Amino acid sequence: MKKIGLTTTVPIEVLIAAGHKPIDLNNIFVTSKDYLKYIDIAEKDGFSKSLCAWIKGIYGVCIENGIKEIVGVMEGDCSNTKALIEVLALKGVKIYPFSFPHSHKIEDVKKEIEKFMNIFGVEYDEVEKVRQRLNKSRNIARKIDELTYIDNKVTGFENHLYQVSLSDFNGDVEKFEFDIANVLNTVRGRKENPKSIRLGYIGVPPMTADIYDFVEQFDARFVYNEVQREFAFPRASEIDNIFEQYYYYTYPYDIKFRLIELKKQIQERKLDGIVHYTQAFCYRAIEDIVLKEELNIPILNIEGDKINTLDARTKLRIEAFLDMLSDIKGGLR
Length: 333
Description:
- By secondary structure, the chain is α/β, with parallel strands linked by helices.
- It folds into 2 domains: 2-122, Rossmann fold (3-Layer(aba) Sandwich); 125-332, 3-Layer(aba) Sandwich (Rossmann fold).
- Helices cover 52% and strands 15% of the residues.
- It has 15 helices and 8 strands.
- It has a 4-stranded parallel sheet with strand order 2-1-3-4.
- Helix 1 (12-17) links the parallel strand 1 (2-6) and strand 2.
- The longest helix is centred in the middle third of the chain and has 26 residues, at 124-149.
- The model has no long low-confidence stretch (mean pLDDT 92).
- This is 2-hydroxyglutaryl-CoA dehydratase, D-component.
């Protein structure tokens, strides 16, 4: 089974139907004990220090791990990805193009996925068969999500982990199916452990995953992980086909479409505040202006760069934000 690297979530149903093994390069990078070596590889090869650490990390993972083929997202992902793909092509990496069309019309999404299927020589029925299988694990992830924000039995980090992993099913669909079913059985049996402050995490998954344990020291918990939840396709079992599945996927499209789902989740999960994580040197940081204007909820913007743990200044800002939310809740009682 041939490995194909991913720089972001794409229709992995097509890759699996074609007999390939999709590998999310982001997950390899951020979970590595020696993750900085990947950034060093990129900078030694000429990548600027003032460039997103994720882009450099993905490049380093490709080079260090001998990834020979990747899916390159031409629309709907970071603009730096286009340049990354060009450099990797120079290094002999084979690039398979895919786009999330800016038009966000269902007919255009369908055309792109059909082109993707043609590249890999698979038929619609084969792809749908894979999608139905993957939806079993996605439905379990949705139950774990509900056990987070409804039953208060799952931590914010666990919620993050078991949804973000669905970007590539940890490279082994069969093993992942078994593992996530066991996780569900375990967390169901826990006692409820509610926290006073209910937080939403929005933006790209963090370099600083210790943020989840940190906030729980202050009687708070993340009960919503925006992009991670999108990676898990929570609506997949309720829609008719793969084209609709990737049409309703909010992450790659414009912020107006994303805001509709954010507003819905703020209400449904009874959030008290939001932490908006952005990566240094990323254009998405500008979106914070729109989010604070459009969302009627306290928002704290924090920025990550190379380090995979929270620095002292960011911890102080989060603690002050939680104090403020606690005061607001106290005043509303």
